[in-house]
Design a protein that fits this description.
It comes from Eisenbergiella tayi. This is Type IV toxin-antitoxin system AbiEi family antitoxin domain-containing protein. Pfam families: DUF6088. 52% of the residues lie in helices and 15% in strands. By secondary structure, the protein is α+β, with helices and mostly antiparallel strands. The chain has a three-stranded antiparallel β-sheet.
Length: 225
């Protein structure tokens, strides 16, 4: 009866996860251990068995060891979420906490700095050492410091400034675009400079300072908001 209760709890937990969420064995096992007050190792064993059975039945899809995703049935057959989208989400937010951010050429495209759309999505994340499922078009970067809810926007922007000289930029006024982004995101210009001085090469600090000084309104207006 106890084992049956484990299985029902795991099934319910998985079904309550949104379609675009990664299903992680570790996360499900921790919830099971808490719910039934059992050792984590025992919960993980039960979770491994149940998730494998669900995958064998086609209820979920195994992406790699310990990682699954939801499955939907359509008139065209089995449908799963876009693997890049769900992995980017998983690499940037975990349990409601920010652990990473998009960077690189894909971000520059999104900001309107370039029309070039790269095949790979670059993500700077605390999980930079993770093994990604086959078929992912994601490149992991180690962030300059551990990503948090408080610092990720600053690290993301300084990354753009650092990468700008070597990027394919075809926007007419890239500096204006970036300064408008600073204001739109309500980034504090002095905090940007202090963060860059603490973590990035001197060349990047000079590029950032020059950008903010030349931008629409300069540092003072950007900092005030």
């Amino acid at each position: 009866m106890e084992q049956a209760g484990y299985g029902k709890h795991i099934t319910s937990t998985v079904k309550n996860l949104p379609y675009g969420e990664i299903i992680r064995t570790d996360d499900i096992a921790r919830l099971l251990a808490d719910q039934f007050a059992i050792p984590y190792d025992k919960a993980r064993t039960a979770t491994n068995v149940k998730l494998k059975r669900m995958a064998d039945k086609g209820e979920i899809e195994r992406l790699q060891k310990g990682i699954y995703c939801h499955v939907k049935q359509s008139i065209f057959g089995k449908v799963t979420p876009n693997i890049d989208e769900i992995m980017v989400k998983d690499l940037t937010v975990r349990n409601g906490v920010k652990i990473g951010y998009q960077t690189g050429a894909a971000l520059m495209n999104r900001l309107g700095l370039t029309t070039l759309l790269p095949r790979e999505i670059e993500v700077a994340t605390n999980g930079y050492g993770l093994k990604l499922p086959d078929g992912c078009h994601i490149k992991l970067r180690k962030p300059e410091e551990r990503v948090t809810d408080e610092n990720w926007k600053y690290l993301q922007f300084i990354d753009v400034v650092r990468d700008l000289p070597d990027a394919h930029i075809d926007a007419q006024q890239p500096e204006l675009i970036l300064c408008q982004f600073v204001k739109r995101q309500q980034l504090d210009a002095l905090q940007l400079i202090f963060t860059a001085r603490r973590l990035y090469p001197a060349k990047t600090v000079l590029q950032l300072t020059d950008l903010l000084m030349k931008g629409n309104g300069g540092i003072n207006e950007s900092a005030s908001g």
